[in-house]
Amino acid sequence: MVLISGVSVSVSVQAKSWLNAHATFYGANQSPSSLGGACGYDNTIHAGFGVNTAAVSTMLFRGGEVCGACYQLICDYRVDPKWCLPGRSVTVTATNFCPPNNQGGWCDPPHHHFDLSLPSFFRIARQGNEGIVPVLYTRVPCKRRGGVRFTLRGQSNFNMVMISNVGGSGDVKAVWIKGSRGRASWLPMHRNWGANWQSSADLRNQRLSFKLTLADGKTLMFLNVVPSSWRFGQTFSSRNQFS
User: What global pTM score does this model have?
Assistant: First the structure.
């Protein structure tokens, strides 16, 4: 237990790792599952993230590098006792980008800002608040059900893979792909946008393997996770997961 802004919160990190930010909510008239946005997650529930998601500001998004990362937030009750719920926290996954308006908005640099899904926002703030609340946040490990998922997109010899449901630090730093023909070698993939990684190798009608390195340096291989009968648009779930 640590005491933050007069509120006792159970966390597994040191208090010095908490940072100041603000939070709003978005998508009040949308299904929370549709808020995959700039990371490319078509459906956050199918991607393994549930409804507790957030669009993050430029300072946090870093061109999509943070997609899939997890944050624990508490509303800063000491600063705003009217709208903050004391002793409550929520863990969210970064799935979208809150764009700057270059007019001093909350998502403009240098602000750290979380535009939360509606269910996430009201986990830490009182009903009836339609505005903005001060929060404290920290990075936390992502706890996922099942293995890492690979969704195949693209056409012909342009392979694009959306990687989701990643545990551990959650944010993928590097990806390699390998086919099954001959003495296949690991080919580096490049981030196309968000959680989508691309390769120009023609790997049709081959079993596909992947190797992932996360931002914290942990690496896992996913051998033959995709069968040779794969088609674009399909998603394959592995048995391996980062801890």
Answer: 0.89
